[in-house]
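Build the 3D complex.
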Amino acid sequence: MNITELARILRITPQELHDILPQLGFDIGQKAIKVDDKTAQRIIKEWPLLIRRLELKKREEKKEGEMRREEKEKREIQLPNLITVREFAEATGITVSKILAELMKNGIFASLNERIDFETASIIGSDLGIEVKPLEQAEERLEEEKDKLKTVLEREKKENLVARPPVIVVMGHVDHGKTKLLDAIRHTDVVAGEAGGITQHIGAYQVRRKDRRITFIDTPGHEAFTAMRSRGAKVADIAILVVAADDGVKPQTVEAFSIIKAAGIPFIVAINKIDKPEANLDKTKQELSSQLNIIPEDWGGKTITAPISAKEGKGIEELLDMVLLTADLEAESLKANPEARAAGTVIESHVNKGEGPVATILVQNGTLKIGDQLVFNGQIYGKVRALKNYRGENVPEAAPSTPVKILGLKLAPQVGDVLEVGEGEKVKLKKIGVEHRLPSFIPETKEEEGGKKINIILKGDVLGSVEAIEESLMKIGTREVGIKIIHKGLGNITEGDIARAEATDAKILGFNIKLSPQIEELAREKNVVIKNYRIIYDLINDVKAEMQELVVPEIKRVDLGKAKALAIFRTETKSQIVGGKVLEGKIEADSLIEIFRNKELVAQGKLVRLQSGKQNVNIVETNQEFGMQYEGDPVIQVGDVLDFYKEEKIIKKI
Ligand code: GDP
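Done.
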């Protein structure tokens, strides 16, 4: 018989069969492709018994190993959610090469500065004999981070504070023209245009208007939302809420406004696309008033509304003047001490090929200089080797409200991390804060360690619901079946989403979005599943149901009791009638039986009838005698120990 055929019958892979046969005493050689039929039949027949023997042997070995390990002192360390391989090595005292090798065994190819997540760290840790626990003070630490900048500024003496440029964030519904507006504003600055030609994208830029500088946060829509949500007013001083005059107030307009309100910062409404024939200023203002209670100044309210056309560059200068006006009203808080050591917030961060980790910092107090030591989360991340402004020019320093790209980092900080320029020594690993904002680098396979993953692309109308759904989905994942959110975003499903879904074998889940017939058609063509929901509960339940289907039932062995064979009354080809006595536990009808002789497993079988005092019974307890009909190889001899157990199928509920 072919090895492949035999493996198929035994429901394992040919390689597994090759590996396992020698352990069972069949030495057929690694290269063999056939076994003779007699041997094959023997293997098939004895397979369950052989496997069980092997399992018992392994368990015995493991027990010994565990005992040995317990003798050594058990080590325990606390780690944050993300940690670089190097930091992990330092914390555990295990060599980097050993950790890398262990990671590789788990299918993760990491480099020294790459981050691994907590779960990975704990798996690797336990393989290497270290118990890894989550860092306890993590949450507190995040709060601390949030207030750090405030404290920095409060510590400054009033007489040292001087005016700094206002920092502006642009928010609004998708497609209402945020990007276009940021472009239009950039082009108002003739100086920038002349000097550098194209501005570099570093997540923020500055323009000059009436000899004053204004800083604009220039992160793509969704990121801007998230950044504002998680950091509140820590970065921006003033918000521009963009509303398209041909579309009016939309879900993300409402959401953007609630984030602005929560941040407690002043805002201006830019009513965009006034060049369009469908533009309706009055209707837009009407919606702002009725839906958001934003009453325009010219309607007797307090909010400045500026009609603009980002496309044609109309009204942009007036909008900037309004920004300056608003900044004047906030003059007291728009101050910093340029003489101090720098503090600021990371607004962009990534690892560049060639350049290594680079980050853009918005300096919020003090002046950042070349040579400054960069401390994030109480840990040194490197030294400033060079600073580049938004035009890509090298600059020696960056004053308050200036965005600069930093070169010289050894580790990439995370967006939202607070920078403090330090002189301190290296702070211990335990003090590293929560770093859950960036996804870890670990490539997720669809099936890892027996676990299956459902890949999902999530699209929703507003960030609030996308976040809520994501959070609920992450909670329902189990060890065997998890969910991986390949991509999430706001707005309708695009061709890009479908391409991404196709490439990652993901399904697209929409929430409160519209599906165009073209997109539906394309999805059908590409075999991509799209499901659209209006109720979060339904979405979560559907995903749960799908996960449930992927859960493989676990067979659990439940030990019942042991008995000794005292008499053999009858022996047939496939059964025996045996008398015995329960040594410990109990015996139940329909049990499975393992027969041990001198502690060696010799056969497996089934109990088909159980009797006590000539009566059929369901249970026989310890010390009672019984008679039973046994089905299986008739090998039981007087003196054998019979191990009774049951198998339970457990389907874990998601
Ligand atoms: P965002 O999603 O808010 O960043 O929106 P974009 O800036 O990408 O703009 C969405 C679409 O609206 C693009 O096709 C722009 O060209 C267009 N758009 C933006 N501003 C204007 C405008 O003032 N007038 C007109 N007619 N179209 C505009």
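The domain at 554-650 is CATH 2.40.30.10 (Elongation Factor Tu (Ef-tu); domain 3).
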